[in-house]
């Protein structure tokens, strides 16, 4: 019995188990190019873009141009059926001719009555009636002239002409279609000034201001870059994308900068604003805490996990550029972000395949 008690006492004093750790793929993050945080994709537009339309309504009879055509100022672009306008013009001419004839008769009658009134051959009342008829005829003639001028304008407006040199960007009406006054027929871009339009996320719009310098490069023109300045920043975000439209005027665009080209815009840091120190992580390292992006950071002191909110500057095909929330050198979980939890003790390991490591 004594020996049994000794054995039982020995079993009751086991050595404490070592704390278990979970292996996770985690690597230090590296600083990205500082210009990446201020880089935005965009496309080339004309400084002035607008729809072209007739000032009068009617049936579209002819189109003289198509999308992509380059046109000159004063060149006819389309034609409405002119029959109604020509009929109105003919009626206005006839009305003017009748008004001029009545005015001629009223003028002759006024001259006769004034001469007779000086000889006291007619009453003063008759002279006043004659003068009133002359004034009415004169006003009717002036009104008829204005109606003729309006009818001439209406007839001229049945031909749509280019008011500037430019290019047709779209077609929005077909031959035979009945158009209302002001209904768009073509999209039109003026020749000359070019600008680049970019969409800036709301968490980065405070780093963009009117007059800010930028550099524009285009995949279609390798080896070339263009200086630009921010001309306009939208006062409100788009309701669907939650981005702000920013327009940049390109200095000396030349003929090579074509409409619709994709562009890469790099904003220069604003005066008094430090350049953003951005870091790049693989897309697999990004975790979402509700609607907000976050990453799992391995604490250096005790190798436990911390879920830290971050600010995304730009999403790429395989990686994500972070503008805030991480510092270069901090160790981040790169894969398996949905299988770990806050406070969990981990052992960082390298990816099993070297190509999975962030570049």
The number of helices is 3
- Residue share in helix: 10-25%
- First-last Cα distance: 69 Å
| Mean pLDDT score | 87
Largest sheet: 6 strands, antiparallel, barrel
Strand element count: 24
- How many domain modules? 4
Give me the side-by-side strand order of the main sheet: 3-12-15-14-13-16
SSE pattern, N- to C-terminal: HEEEEEEEHHEEEEEEEEEEEEEEEEE
Characterization of this structure:
With 359 residues, this protein is an alpha+beta fold. The chain has 4 domains: 22-33 and 276-353, conserved putative lor/sdh protein from methanococcus maripaludis s2 fold (Beta Barrel); 38-47 and 191-267, Efflux pump adaptor protein, beta barrel domain (Elongation Factor Tu (Ef-tu), domain 3, Beta Barrel), CATH 2.40.30; 49-78 and 163-189, OB fold (Dihydrolipoamide Acetyltransferase, E2P), CATH 2.40.50.100; 83-156, Helix Hairpins (Orthogonal Bundle), CATH 1.10.287. It contains 3 helices and 24 strands. The chain has helices at 2-11, 83-118, 124-156, and strands spanning 22-28, 30-31, 39-46, 49-53, 58-63, 70-71, 76-80, 159-161, 166-171, 178-179, 184-190, 194-201, 213-217, 225-233, 243-250, 262-267, 279-282, 287-289, 292-298, 305-309, 311-315, 319-324, 331-333, 346-349. A 6-stranded antiparallel β-barrel has the order 3-12-15-14-13-16. It has a 4-stranded antiparallel sheet with strand order 2-17-22-21, with no helix packed on it. The chain has a 4-stranded antiparallel sheet with strand order 4-11-9-6, with no helix packed on it. Strand 18 and strand 19 form a beta hairpin. The longest helix is centred in the N-terminal third of the chain and has 36 residues, at 83-118. It is rod-shaped. The two termini are 69 Å apart. Mean pLDDT is 87; it is low at 5-10 and 12-18. Residues 196-268 form the CusB-like beta-barrel domain. Belongs to the membrane fusion protein (MFP) (TC 8.A.1) family. This is Efflux RND transporter periplasmic adaptor subunit. Keywords: Coiled coil, Transport. InterPro entries: Beta-barrel_RND_2, MdtA-like_BSH, MdtA-like_C, RND_pump_MFP.
